[in-house]
Amino acid sequence: MRILTSAPGRICLFGEHQDYFGFPVVASAIGLRGTIESEARSDRRVHLDLLDLGTSREWDLDSLPEPGPRDYWLSALHVAKKEGWLPPVGWNARVTSQIPQQAGASSSSALTAAWCALIALRNGRVVDDEAGREWIAHATWRSEVQWFNEPGGMMDQVMCAMGGTRKIEFTPKFQTTQLPKPEGVWTLIDSHQPKETLSILSSAKERRLELISQWGVGLGEEWPDVFPARPQDWNAAEHRLMDATIGIREVSSRGGGLLTSQPRAIEGIGELLTAHHHWLSHGLEVSTPKIDGLLEASINAGAFGGKINGSGGGGTSFVVSNAEAVQAIHRTLTERDAEAIPVELGAPGIEVIRVS
Predict the structure, then answer these.
(1) Could you read off the pLDDT of 253-306 as tens digits, one per residue?
(2) Is 236 exposed, middle or buried (0-12, 13-18, 19+ CB in 10 A)?
(3) Which terminus in the chain has less CB density within 10 A, N or C?
(4) Are strands 45-50 and 175-178 parallel, antiparallel or unpaired?
């Protein structure tokens, strides 16, 4: 049987750099997808052609090597073997992707989710319903984050597997709430600057965890209206990190509320996206001068607002506008050596095509 699986990229609307604290995030899947096409073999080998990269991989399911750093193709096979959902026979597969690579739009998680779905399908699991997509989200997280003990949260895996526009809550228990698709016209901006995922995540997460512990404010709880006094020995940089942590949480809460209100004022959402970006850029320092400039130029050209997308240090950002401003926005981005990519929000999660 020939099986095709695909998964979307995503943008984080509100809550960037707070999912790994257990705080809620609001994100939306985008209409750019990673796709894997496969056919069964008669032996126990798996052959993978990465067509966009011009490379191939091959493994024996009975003798899997240990994965190297961030080798999610292989770690997913190990997770499946450990948990009992490795298929009885091998397969050939071909991989393509529309999602900008190493750019913060979850190209890796989309392909890992599609890969986990393919492995599970070939073992007889149902993955293309809501429960199955949620299971794939967790399997993808185990393959990417848990296996390598990486510092990221779970937003990417949830959105790539489950799709739509969602509020994701992690405490007191994991749950997602489907939200209406945001209005307006959305443009993904590829800065052509490779992002720095692990170093950015580690610095943005670990230092703030230390400061929050010193401050005595509990994670995963509703933060108080009046915070306790901060330690007197904190320097300006440490105060700035905590100001940003509070600011991101507040703007994310307001943004999530706007997305569920009727009517949904896209101008107000744009302003909150820009406020969110301010905290990410000037508080956590995860943006770059080029990305700051691209967002400012887009707003001057008519966008309502926007923010950096993903862990930061390069990669993508996005803006929202009305239709009348799109041409001017795209022109100003092209003039600044960036790629403007129109995207639809609220794309479906894991999709499966079976051909006998």
Answers:
(1) 899 888 887 666 899 999 999 999 999 999 999 999 999 999 999 999 999 999
(2) exposed
(3) C
(4) unpaired
Q: Per-residue DSSP letters for 26-78?
A: EEEEEEEEEEEEEEE-SSSEEEEEETTTTEEEEEETTSPPPP-TT-HHHHHHH
pTM over the 0.85 mark: yes
Q: Is 131 helix (H, G, I), strand (E, B) or coil?
A: helix
Backbone phi, then psi, for 206, in 5-degree steps?
Answer: -65, -45
**Banded pLDDT at 354 (limits 50, 70, 90):** confident
For 329-356, give the DSSP string: HHHHHHHTT-EEEEE-BS-BS-EEEEE-
Q: 8: helix, coil or strand?
A: strand
Domain extent listing, the chain: 2-181+347-355, 185-343
Give the model confidence (pLDDT) of 66-89 as tens digits: 999 999 999 999 999 999 999 999
The amino acid at residue 36 is I
State the Cα–Cα distance between residues 164 and 342, nearest whole angstrom. Answer: 17
Distances (CA, A) of 226 to 22, 206, 222, 235: 21, 24, 12, 21
Query: Cβ atoms within 10 A of the Cβ of 33, count?
Result: 22
- Return d(Cα 316, Cα 68) in angstroms, integer: 26
Could you read off the pLDDT of 108-156 as tens digits, one per residue? 999 999 999 999 999 999 998 999 999 999 999 999 999 999 877 799 9
Look at the domain 185-343 and name its fold: Alpha-Beta Plaits (3.30.70)
Least confident of 149-153, 157-161, 197-201, 343-347: 197-201
Stretch (H or E) spanning 133: helix 130-141
d(CA 133, CA 128): 6
Using alpha carbons only, what angle is made at residue 146 by residues 284 and 188, rounded to the nearest 5 degrees? 45
Cβ neighbours of 331 (radius 10 Å) = 12
DSSP 8-state secondary structure symbol assigned to residue 175: E
CATH for the stretch 2-181+347-355: 3.30.230.10
Give φ, ψ of 163 to 5 degrees. 70, -170
